[in-house]
Amino acid sequence: MPLFMRFPKMHGKEPKFAINRVRLSLDEWDEVSRLPKEPSLRLRVEDELLRIKRDLYHLIEYDKKEITYSVLKDVVKDKKPSDPLNSLFLDHYMEYLSKKEKNGLIGPSTMRSHITTMTALNEFDKNLRLKDIDETKIREFIAFLRNRKIKKGQDASKLTFGNRLIQIRAILRYIAAKGIAVKNPFDSHDIYIAPCNRNETYLNEVELSKMVNCNPQNEAFKIRQVYTR
What is the DSSP annotation of 114-163? Predict the structure, then answer.
């Protein structure tokens, strides 16, 4: 049977948890010493008790953490909290877009652009973890995007990926805002995002006047509706 460890009552509840990796019969238990009779089993229990005391001391003295029922259970069970930096970047990306869409903060065209970036990231490294992200990894992704475009016959000298990088930077900032210490080579200026080329073609006054005063039956009226939505 498992060996249980009891603690003083906590909020009216007495914590009692089985110690991992320790099972023994009643004949193997010494009621006087409150330890197993067999030396190897006794050593195993003593090691577990020492580990539990050490982990609790560290939580109280160094992490300044309150010892709740669930925390105490995790310590006894030797359950280590998962490292958020081991989580996948694409999981956080999907979470970000889901929240934006739910709150009506992202339009269809912007969503399509983000999906294009996510598709590229998935092809580049679908198992990309937060701990893997640094200047080198971002430059590898840029090289991946460039090579992919070149294979499609595009001129390498005219390729820019500013929009993709801006989107990745936004996700990194979103992750950091959740309290996760992810590296951001954009904010540290290890990676510079070149300004995107802007479309400098505008309507002149005559063209604008025609659009404003166009007949509802004309095709131009439909165009005006698009611009004034």
Answer: HHHHHHHHHHHHTT-BGGG-SHHHHHHHHHHHHHHHHHTT--GGG---HH
